[in-house]
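Tokens in:
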């Protein structure tokens, strides 16, 4: 009887280890400025990615989770369409220590419209939002395919989104640009847009202060979070930021 119970215990433990999730993500969507209606579609999209790729995700809009004890539970923090001043000084300090411990950050779209007065965060994101033209269809060009999630991303693709223009100079000077926007394929001088010139980055990554940071400017329109090409792109960034794997 004892032998049978021992064998059964081994089977249960083996099954449990087979379902172990490969990393843990904190999804943060607090806004103190413009509130994107696409946030809820974004949350659903990230949750679907977690189910598909076997990682766990906790969704929070309460900044109290940004303390050293809570952040230790996560491998990557995702700022999805956050805006404005969303963390106090203590929470900022906890997040800095988190990144310095070797963990990861992913910024989506309006994450670049967040915490302008926090220079450390500006450098983490890499570039900060300046303005945008009216939503339009434009061509995206992959300039560096050596990154997870770009395996099926075409070298050139027609895409509709809200195209951010970023402040110059960039907050960080070591960005690895992945995707650029072809300004000849749309009219950047609508709304308050002016264009960024021949090199208009829209997605990038870099190592920063001991950790890893990935950003994509795509993600304004809710339906993109059910588009497989975008989801591959987003998961690639989450995977690299969480694990450091996937770049040769």
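Residues out:
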């Amino acid at each position: 009887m004892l032998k049978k119970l021992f064998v059964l215990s081994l089977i249960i433990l083996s099954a449990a280890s087979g379902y172990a999730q490969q990393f843990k993500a904190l999804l943060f969507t607090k806004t103190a400025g413009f509130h994107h209606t696409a946030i809820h579609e974004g949350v659903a999209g990230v949750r679907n990615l977690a189910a598909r790729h076997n990682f766990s995700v906790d969704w929070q809009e309460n900044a109290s989770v940004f303390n050293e004890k809570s952040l230790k539970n996560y491998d990557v923090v995702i700022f999805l369409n956050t805006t404005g001043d969303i963390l106090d000084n203590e929470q900022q300090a906890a997040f800095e220590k988190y990144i310095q411990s070797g963990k990861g950050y992913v910024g989506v779209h309006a994450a670049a419209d967040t915490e302008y007065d926090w220079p450390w965060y500006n450098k983490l994101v890499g570039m900060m939002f300046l303005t945008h033209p009216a939503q339009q269809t434009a061509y995206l060009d992959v300039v560096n395919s050596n990154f997870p999630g770009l395996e099926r991303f075409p070298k050139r693709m027609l895409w509709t989104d809200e195209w951010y223009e970023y402040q110059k100079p960039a907050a960080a000077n070591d960005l690895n640009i992945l995707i650029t926007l072809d300004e000849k394929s749309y009219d950047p001088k609508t709304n308050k847009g002016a264009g960024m010139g021949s090199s208009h980055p829209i997605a990038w990554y870099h190592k920063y202060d001991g950790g890893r940071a990935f950003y994509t400017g795509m993600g304004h329109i809710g339906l993109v979070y059910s588009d497989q090409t975008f989801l591959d792109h987003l998961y690639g960034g989450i995977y690299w930021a969480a694990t450091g794997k996937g770049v040769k």
